[in-house]
Write a structure and sequence with these properties.
By secondary structure, this protein is α+β, with helices and mostly antiparallel strands. It is 37% helix and 29% strand. It has eight helices and twelve strands. It has helices spanning 2-14, 26-33, 37-49, 68-86, 103-108, 111-121, 137-146, 203-207, and strands at 22-24, 53-58, 61-66, 90-98, 130-134, 152-154, 157-159, 162-164, 167-174, 178-185, 194-198, 214-220. The strands form three sheets. The protein has a six-stranded antiparallel beta barrel with strand order 4-5-11-10-9-12. A three-stranded antiparallel sheet has the order 1-3-2. A hairpin with a 3-residue loop joins strand 9 and strand 10. The protein is elongated and about 65 Å long. The relative contact order is 0.15.
Length: 229
């Protein structure tokens, strides 16, 4: 399970593997994990396969260092705990509007997504997403906390020989006026500080906003869960 890999990453981080390559053995790691040597070995192999650690085998044991993907997983777990411990119920994001590549319009109109949007959000979204680039580090941190919750799950699907990944939605309000939803897309080309928003209307026209404008988005976490996918 993913949670077991997270715990293994945590133990490696405690040994100093975030900033340096550490030398350890499977028996030692098994003792720290309170598990068998075989299980510890399997977990290390899974971490390496996921690209979360770099591992070099030597005559004196293993040299292990947590890679950037592994650090990102630890940061994600930190966010989950932060939301759960503080009982956070909402986040506020401020971002600058920009025009994307038009991918949002294509994906939002796919019937596999549209049917689920209608059922779970109660409306068919306008064919496109409003893209904003988060304004400050504080906004980026708020978005990190948002992504630590599951939100409303939109399942992935397959059409022909192509598969489309799952999406999480978070109920939101744009500029305290228009109901919308923030998307967390598993497969996206956008930078992590970019937020994609859908709504039942054309947000640009309805709110009279355009590229360069800074908007405020309030997202509700009250119906979300703090267990990551």
């Amino acid at each position: 399970m993913k949670e077991q890999l997270w715990f293994t990453l945590l133990v490696l981080a405690q040994l100093g593997a975030v900033t340096n390559s550490i030398r350890t053995s499977t028996p030692r790691l098994a003792l720290l994990l309170n598990t068998s040597q075989q299980t510890a070995s399997r977990r290390l192999a899974a971490l390496e396969q996921n690209g979360w650690i770099q591992r070099i085998l030597t005559n004196r044991g293993q040299l292990i260092r947590i890679e950037s993907k592994g650090v990102a997983e630890l940061t994600h777990v930190q966010s989950i705990l932060e939301v759960a411990m503080t009982k956070k119920r909402s986040v506020t994001l401020r971002g600058r509007i920009f025009t994307g590549l038009g991918e949002g319009a294509y994906y939002v109109q796919l019937e596999g997504y549209r049917k689920q949007f209608r059922k779970k959000l109660g409306y068919t979204p306008f064919p496109g997403t409003l893209n904003i680039q988060l304004h400050t580090d504080a906004d980026v941190n708020e978005f990190r906390l948002l992504k630590a919750t599951i939100g409303i799950e939109i399942n992935g699907f397959t059409t022909g020989d192509r598969s489309f990944g799952p999406v999480a939605c978070y109920l939101a309000t744009v500029n305290n006026q228009q109901k919308a939803a923030i998307l967390q897309i598993e497969r996206t080309h956008h930078h992590p500080n970019v937020v994609e928003i859908i709504a039942p209307v054309n947000l640009r026209e309805k709110l009279r906003i355009s590229d360069g404008d800074i908007i405020t988005v309030n997202a509700d976490l009250s119906d979300s869960h703090t267990l990551s996918q």
